[in-house]
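ARCHIVE CARD
Drawer: 12
Card no.: 0347
Subject: one protein chain, sequence and derived structure
Cross-reference: see card 0346
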Amino acid sequence: MNEIYESINKKSNGKYKDLRFPCVTFTRGAEVTVVCKKSDRAFVDSNKTELTSLIKDVCNFHTPITLKIKDDELTATTLRIAVVRFTEKFNYVSSMSHTITAEGEPNFTVKLKMHSAMHDLAKSDYLPRLKEFLHNNYIQDIAVDVEIVDFAASGTASATTLSTKTEYDLFDVQPYIGDFKPNKARAISSISAAEYNVTVCGILVMQTEFTSKGGRSYERFLIYDGDMSLQCIFYPSGGKSIVKASELMNKSVCVFGNVEYDDRRNEATLKVQSLAICKAEGLAPLQEKPEPTSYGLISPQGYEVLVQSSMFDIGADVPPSLMGDFVVFDFETTGLSVIYDKPTELGAVKIRNGKLYECFTTLIDPKREIPSEVVEKTGITNEMVKGQPLFEDILPDFYKFTCGAALVCHNIAFDFPFLLRGGNRSGWAFGNKRTFDTMAIAPLALPGITKLTLDNVLSGLGLSNDNAHRALSDAAATARAFIEMKKLLDKS
């Protein structure tokens, strides 16, 4: 469309230099999209007749022309979304979509990360087309900055990079559980089957206390390196606890134990025997970002806007354990594997000082088909998610929503890895938050409970969930269960 822009301005002596013409569509005529600054909207409206005549002359259209006028509402978020969607039309570069950022308001720059081989292909095709796309769609000039990244280089990747390492050299090893001082450890990506006596290295997050149905206490946590995470289970002994050790949160550790592997979910679980704090070249926790000043795509709503708050009135008595902020969240996904599946919906409820306070909810476009059995279970169809925000684009808003709060889930070992992986890919750190699991609390609050499903926990508390398997409804029900169980435990 650059030719239209140049020809129109040549014929009008630059009268329309601050307009852009990103596309034309044909149905019963030609609809030409015109992009302008919001402040120029009146100018365009008053010159529609002349502008239509110029377009008809320049394009030699022999059909009626209508103008579709759009304001240039440029923000870092809307720019990034537009570039991601443009990029996904090019198969050979679409894999780097999650690395795309837009920053530098008001003088924006789009930043991309590419492997050198990808860049060799892109510089004669994708990159010129991207620059043309930006020029056609936005009034201001937008720079494109390409960083060449060699993902195969060892020892240079950050914790958020797609790592190809299979082993780490360790140093500054400090035993924490057991007399354990290894000098090497496996990378998580090297674990693909059940194994005995394995030493693995990663960043420790999601420290959560559990109680089995038989009343035995144990602890769960994750370690992650780059894009991969590993579930870990530890049975405390000798007075040692991983959950209660704040010095381990978001730190590099190496763990030793036996690995069990779930082929259905492509997920490994390591039963920990020993653990040490350590350092490993190329492995570091994701650094926190300041809380965003405002919401972009998704803003929270007061809880009573979506749900009758009277249904969840917990009364005046608030136990000390509920003071502060807790964000209870739930994902609906295309399947059970954090490696292969994607979120389709995120729902969250904020508890503030024991009261249900705010809701955060959005559908998410997974950019893939939702299996029919998942559609039947959740009611979320491919048509519902098409054109909805991408996961990485709602993460800044969810990061703001969770700032200063602990995280709560029912079966957090399923939901948290999706949040962790998405956050690590997009530069938003969720790994340093305290976590709770209502599935872990239920055996303490409801002695004798036999099944730890959310429905069964709610039934034991005299509660219900009228819209199960939708994210916001599940999050709200989990929040209510969390509050009620905390009250029960505070009285005991």
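Annotation on reverse: The first helix runs from residue 2 to 11. The radius of gyration is 26 Å.
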